[in-house]
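Async update (no meeting this week)

Hi team, since we skipped the sync, here's where things stand on the single-chain job. The sequence we agreed to prioritize is pasted below, unchanged from the tracker. I ran it this morning and attached the output directly underneath so nobody has to dig for it. Comments welcome in thread, and please keep replies under the output.
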Amino acid sequence: MEDAYQDPKSDSLQLNESIIDSSGEEHLDQHELNKLYRKLDFRIISGLWCLYFLTMLCGLTYGLTLTMNTKQGHSMIQELDLTTRQISLASALETVAFIIFDLPMNLIMTKVSPQTWLARITITVGVVYCFYHILNDGTGLIVIRVVSGVVGAGVWPGMSYYISLWYPNERSTRRIGYYFTAAQISAAAAGLLSAAFQKMDGVRGYTGWQWMYLVIGVITVVCGIALLWWLPDRPFIVKKEPTNKIMRIYRRFLTPPYPLNHEQKELHRKDLEQRYKLLTWTWKDVFYIITDLRIWPLIIMYFGVVGTGMGLAVFGSTIIAVQNPSLSSISVSLLYAPIWLFDLTGILIITPFADRFKKFRPLIFSFACLIIITGLLVTTYAHGPWNKYAGLLIAGFGLGPTVPICMAWAAEIFGPKYGDVGCAVSAALVSGLGNLGTVTATYALYSGWPADKERLFQYSNMMLVLMLGVSIIASGVCYLIKDKVRQN
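Output:
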C-alpha cells in the first residue's frame, strides 16, 4: 500500500475564499482561515495535548515513585534496594536513549502515517510503564529505563513535525505552546496523583507505586489506541485501496475522519502550498541538515532553556524546601505547582506574539530568557524565603515560551529549503542534542554538586544563568546566519 501526495498546484477548483488584488496577487480570506484552523485545533491540539500529558505523566511518575510510602518501607528505592549509582545510571541511560533514537524515530515518521506513529509511541510507552510494577531489582530498573527511552524517543520532535504538516509556520508557535502546557499540568497533577495512590498501598498485595505505574500505564495505552482514530493523517494525500484484508479492516474502522469539509480542504491546501513542494528526501539531505551550521545555534538555544526548565522541574521542590526549612512537605508540594502555572501563563501570553511577529522571534526568545535570568537572580540573592520563592515564579513565567519558539524557528529555517525532512530532522536534532542540557542541570549541577545545597544552590543557579546567556548569544548568531549559510 502506498500513499501518494496530491500536488497542491494540480487543483483546478476556484475558491470563493480567495481574493485577487490589483497587482494580480492572490490573498486568502483570513477570517475563513481562522475558522479552519480553529476546527483543526479541536482535533489536533486536543489529541496532542492528551498524548503529551500522559507520556509526560509516565516520565514524572518515576521520580515520585522513588519516595512513595517511605514511612511504610514501601518506596521503590526500599522495595528494590536501589543504590544511588543505580538510580543515576538508569536515568542517564534513558536520556542517552532519547538522544540516540530521536532522529531515526522522526525519519521513520516521514515515511509512515504520522498519527499511527504518534499513537504507537503512546501505546508502547503505556505498555512499558505497566511492566514497571513487576520490577524486583536495580538491574531490571536500568533495563526498563533504557527501554522507556527507546520507545518514547521522538514524541516531542514528532509532535513538532506533525504540527508542521497541518499548520503554516506563522501559526505554529502558539500551537506548540498550547500542547506544551500539558507538561506543566502533568507536573502539577503528578504530585496529587502520587498522594492518592499512596492511599492504595497494600491493596491486593501491591504497593502504592506499583498501583500508580499500572493504572497510568493502562490509561496511556487506551489513549494511544484512541489517537489512531482521533488524530487525522497527513493532509492532501490520495490513499490507494489496500489489497490485504487486515489493512482493509484497519482502514474501515480505524482511519480517522478528515477534519475539514471539501471547501475548507481546498482553502487549507492553498495556505500550505509551499510546505508540500519538497516531500521526498535522501540520506544526502539528512547529511546536509546535520552539517548545516544553522542547526547548531538552535541546539545551543534549546540546551540552555530546556536545561534550566528541567533543573527547576526536578529540583524545584528541593530548592523551595532548602530556602524555607520551616515548611512541611505538603506545603512544599503546594508551592511547587504555581511555578508551572506561571509557566503556562507565559506560554499563553507570549507565544502568540512569536507567531504574529516571526521576524522578531530571536528577540522574543531572548526577552523570555532575560525574564528567566531575572527570576534566578531574585531566587538566589533576594532576602527572605518568600522573596526567593517569587524569583522561581518569575523564572517559570519566562520558561514557558522558549521551547515552542525554538521548535517553530527550526521548522521556519529548515522547512523551505529541505522540505519534509528538514522539519523532521531539525526537530529531532534540536530536541535530542539539546536535551544534553537536562543532563547538565540535573546530574552535573543540583544533584551532582552536594556542597552547593548549603549555599542554597547559588552556584548551580548561576551556572543556569550562564547557560541562558549562551542561549541568547546563540539566538543572535542564528539570526545573523539563517539566510546566509547554504550547503548545496
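Quick observations from my side:
The chain has 19 helices and four strands.
The chain has two domains: 26-272, 277-488.
Reply here if anything looks off.
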